[in-house]
Structure to design on (328 residues):
């Protein structure tokens, strides 16, 4: 049994062993990862997204340290949030782009891929599935389900009114959802139709083949790569441009891996004064995977020369491999 906790205050005691005074859970949802990623994908910072910028540094810190808030002041709640978690393994943090709460916490249960550009969504999907946290996929996310996931409840008649009003009050924290036009269009949480609209059409796996292939290939990479799959704790990262970052996985004799995520426009790294980009003595980076592949709905990946100038396509993620002693 693998026990995962949902704890908005981000109390690391929940995943510490009972001998340390903890509760012995296996992992906690990392809301910080989700919130930073959503801002990076959509640019929206309303309500509880207020304390995030969606910056490359936030994403790197999630990869390296798990929670972003480990005791700092959190303006949205007007108090400090989180507890120290630097010593915890990255597997203790469940990273996700979607879950049932967050998809439903919108006016119309819209999936995140529908609120972002395709390229950015592919790039951050790679960051999620190749990152050192424990990744979570929400139902249908793996094939870009077109079905919304709405808030619904099955209560007796005397509770239906309070539930409906409570839902409206909750959504009012998002300033755009206080718009009278939006309020009139909100789906009722207590009708059967709201539930039925949230039902998956699994046949879309055969229709949305590009999205499904993206997730299949990334999961296979995570499982099969000896460095990403087994040495995910040995990583470092750096911001290399306003909307770009690099994660380096140190694999010893198995070579290193370099994950570059560029959420901005086409990028030319000249000069490139970031040591994480150096392949090492006698080594050379080789492009192993790209989110820009036409297999995933991309437009192809231009030739990249990591020895000369780094030409990085916009809204993309790329994985490079390197072996010591000049092997490629």
């Amino acid at each position: 049994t693998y026990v995962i906790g949902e704890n908005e205050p981000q109390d690391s005691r929940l995943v510490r062993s009972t001998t340390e005074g903890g509760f012995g859970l296996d992992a906690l949802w990392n809301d910080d990862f989700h919130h930073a990623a959503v801002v990076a994908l959509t640019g929206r910072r309303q309500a509880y997204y207020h304390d995030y910028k969606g910056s490359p540094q936030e994403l790197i810190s999630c990869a390296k340290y798990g929670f972003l808030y480990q005791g700092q002041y959190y303006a949205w709640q007007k108090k400090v949030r989180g507890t120290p978690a630097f010593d915890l393994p990255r597997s203790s943090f469940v990273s996700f782009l979607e879950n049932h709460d967050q998809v439903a916490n919108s006016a119309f249960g819209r999936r995140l891929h529908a609120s972002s550009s395709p390229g950015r969504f592919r790039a951050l999907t790679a960051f999620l599935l190749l990152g050192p946290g424990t990744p979570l996929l929400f139902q249908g996310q793996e094939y870009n389900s077109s079905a919304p996931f709405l808030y619904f409840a099955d209560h007796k008649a005397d509770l239906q009114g309070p539930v409906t009003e409570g839902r409206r009050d909750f959504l009012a924290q998002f300033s755009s959802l206080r718009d009278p036009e939006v309020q009139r269009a909100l789906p009722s949480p207590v009708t059967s139709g709201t539930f039925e609209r949230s039902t998956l059409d699994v046949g879309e796996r055969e229709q949305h083949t590009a999205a499904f292939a993206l997730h299949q290939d990334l999961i296979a990479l995570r499982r099969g790569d000896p460095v990403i799959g087994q040495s995910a704790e040995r990583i470092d990262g750096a911001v290399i441009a306003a909307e770009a970052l690099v994660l380096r996985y140190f694999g010893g004799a198995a070579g290193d891996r370099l994950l570059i995520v560029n959420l901005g426009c086409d990028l030319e790294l000249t000069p490139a004064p970031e040591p994480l980009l150096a392949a090492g003595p006698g080594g050379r980076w080789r492009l192993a995977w790209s989110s820009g592949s036409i297999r995933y709905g991309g437009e192809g990946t231009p030739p990249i020369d990591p020895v000369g100038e780094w030409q990085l396509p916009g809204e993309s993620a790329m994985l490079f491999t390197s072996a010591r002693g000049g092997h490629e």
The mean pLDDT is 93. The first strand starts at residue 4 and ends at 5.
